[in-house]
Amino acid sequence: MACSLPLHAPLSSSPRVLSYLPTPRTLPLFRRGPRVPLHRPPSPPRALPDVAAGAVAGIRDALADAFLTSPPTWRTAAASNLVVFVAGSPVLLSGLSASGFAAAYLLGTLTWRGFGAPGFLVVVAYFVVGTAVTKLRIRQKEALGVAEKRGGRRGPGSVIGSSAAGCVCALLSIYHAGGTASSELWRLGFVASFCTKLSDTVSSEIGKAFGRTTYLVTTLKVVPRGTEGAISIEGTIAGILAAVFLSGVGYLLGQVDVLQVAVCVLASQIANYVESYIGATLQDKEGFEWLNNDIVNVLNISIGAILALLTQQLLILLLRKQEGHAGHA
């Protein structure tokens, strides 16, 4: 049986059919995408302003002038010393208290003014070696009760006690005491005073750290380490080597000649013996309570400097006398 359908059947408007049709949406005129930040080329670093650049250049030139000025002035000496102290403050504060640091700055300025950078470097060598041996076996020394106070950090009294004679020589050189001919003498006394103090420090600290047997200098009886006026073989040898070292530094820096190196070593050892004798007979004795370590140190370095000056003068007289005999012959 045939079945016929109309050729033009109307479309059904049933909701079920319309549900399959896409829902019309309103589209924007321009399609939006994700925002992309603009990448601008980095601007070149700004140069220092002219004023700041000029200030930096001025400071640099001033420091260069301070280091190179010869003879140094008080201003250049203070500036040069300040730069060294700021740069070396970690090392300096390891061996100095805050007040000792301030006292050392005054010493450094005076030294630079009197003897320039070479004289200043002599003091630097003294400080480095002296601090190193002071801290050597510091725990052992503390256990024995013979270590320096404050963990080996020196206060202003110790700084002054170690440098008083050198400061006097610097002042005499600055103000030309005795005329130009005496400037060499004051330089010799300066080096001899620090050779004496370094020899004393090294002999004492090495003796306390490594000395097997210590003897009282007056009787040669065996006494405990750290006893005032005590000496040891190890400490004595180390002290002589320390004096040779520092006087050698002075020679390399043009502060003393070869003969004066021997003068410094000899004077330092005689002064140290006298210092040990004073410590054994007078220090800590009734009526001499005022004679503390700092005062004994001043006496020690003063004796070393004076002995060096007298020995130098004696040698000059002997040489002149010898030249006079040679002339008459």
Major pleated sheet: 3 strands, antiparallel
Intertermini distance: 172 Å
Helix content: 55-70%
Order of neighbouring strands in the sheet with most strands: 2-1-3
Question: How many structural domains are formed by the residues?
Answer: 1
Strand content: under 5%
Apparent shape: globular
Quaternary organisation: single chain
Query: If helices are DSSP runs of H or I spanning 4 or more residues, what is the number of helices?
Result: 11
Radius of gyration: 40 Å
Q: What is the tally of beta strands?
A: 3
The secondary-structure element order is HHHHHHHHEEEHHH
Brief sketch in words of this structure:
It is a multi-pass membrane protein. The chain has 329 residues and is mainly alpha-helical. The protein is 65% helix and 2% strand.
List keywords for this structure.
329 residues; membrane; transmembrane; mainly alpha; transmembrane helix; 3-stranded antiparallel β-sheet; DUF92_TMEM19
Explain what the structure shows:
Pfam families: DUF92. Belongs to the TMEM19 family. InterPro entries: DUF92_TMEM19 (IPR002794). The chain crosses the membrane at residues 82-107, 119-138, 159-178, 230-253, 258-278, 298-319. It is found in: Membrane. The chain is mainly α and 329 residues long. The protein has one domain (69-322). Helix content is 65%, strand content 2%. It has 11 helices and 3 strands. It has helices at 15-18, 50-68, 74-87, 89-95, 98-134, 138-144, 156-174, 183-210, 233-252, 258-281, 293-328; strands spanning 214-216, 222-223, 230-232. It has a 3-stranded antiparallel beta sheet with strand order 2-1-3. Helix 8 crosses helix 10 (258-281). The protein is globular. Residues 1-21 have low confidence and may be disordered.
